[in-house]
Amino acid sequence: MPAIKVLRIENPGRDYRLTIKEEACPHPGPGQVAIKVAAAGLNRADLLQGRGLYPPPPGASDIPGMEVSGTIIALGEGVEHLAAGQRVCALLAGGGYAEVAIADAGAVLPVPEGVDLVDAAGLPEACFTAWTNVIDTGRLAGGETLLVHGGTSGIGTIAIQMFAALGHRVFATAGSDEKCAACVNLGAARAINYRSEDFVAAVKDATGGAGVDVILDMVGGSYIQRNIAACAQWGRIVNIAYQDGARVEVDFAPVLAKKLTLAATTLRGRCPDQKRLIRNALAEIVWPLLETGRIHPVINRRFGLADANAAHAAMAKGGHVGKILLEL
Ligand SMILES: NC(=O)c1ccc[n+]([C@@H]2O[C@H](COP(=O)([O-])OP(=O)(O)OC[C@H]3O[C@@H](n4cnc5c(N)ncnc54)[C@H](OP(=O)(O)O)[C@@H]3O)[C@@H](O)[C@H]2O)c1
Q1: Domains contained in the chain, CATH given
Q2: Residue 193 in contact with ligand 1 by CB distance below 6 A
Q3: Taking the model in full, what pTM does it have?
């Protein structure tokens, strides 16, 4: 294949820029596939990578982009159950901002029936992250309640829908009344505007004083103590980011008294086998919800390759509900 267009980070740091370059087309290694990319999903971590604060894990492409949708064009040695021409979406450790991306076969899923090929780029990172943190780490069980902070983030819009559809009462926080309305439309039983309401009081009130069983948090900072207060006995708090800071003074007495679990995980550097297990669970339980239209990717905006810097600026500015996509 001739050279392909990719986006490279120039001048990493506060004033980084994404620049289009022409490079050799990558080839899939054993257990991998090459995907002709239709679109890449933007993630907040891409902005951190641009600023030089989030290097890709060892062995991963240093081209940004952790999720794509597109069409398989080549199979590496030993890949079964996937075929050239198949429309797929995939979680990547890097390399998604490119016309051709390489994915481990175990992190590839079909584009769900009824979901637009480009929109499917908004599914992998949100679905993998929401599922593994809430189910594998948070151990959300039948009948239990969930609080999702950042309810209108890429992650939040999928988490609310996914766990509401699976029968849980889901609460969410967001920074405006409009965003709270969006959370309720996605299936939240109650959305809390964190600028005007106290989420601890709100979830206590909504659960008859008990608190919530699992909290998915990307805020940290001042939320750390308040999450502990908002949890029910035996509650689990799972952090996927600390946007409001990772250094705080915490009173752990209620953690002990309520028998809570505090956890935090990242997805990007996990080994292929772990990603394959999450992929399998999504294929069995979440993909049928997408194929019946019960849940859907929430897409805020699509940008063209030449407007990648504007796409990053839009994400940095915030205000979006759902995913921002880059069309290749
Ligand atoms: N650990 C992992 O494996 C993993 C994987 C994927 C993503 N993440 C993290 O998850 C977060 C969401 O990612 P994304 O790509 O979906 O980003 P995004 O769409 O830009 O969402 C960021 C969200 O954070 C919320 N937020 C920021 N500061 C807040 C505060 N002080 N109080 C309450 N909410 C606040 C925003 O809510 P408002 O706009 O309503 O203020 C917004 O919904 C990022 O921090 C990302 O790094 C972690």
Answers
A1: 4-123+268-327 (3.90.180.10), 127-264 (3.40.50.720)
A2: no
A3: 0.97
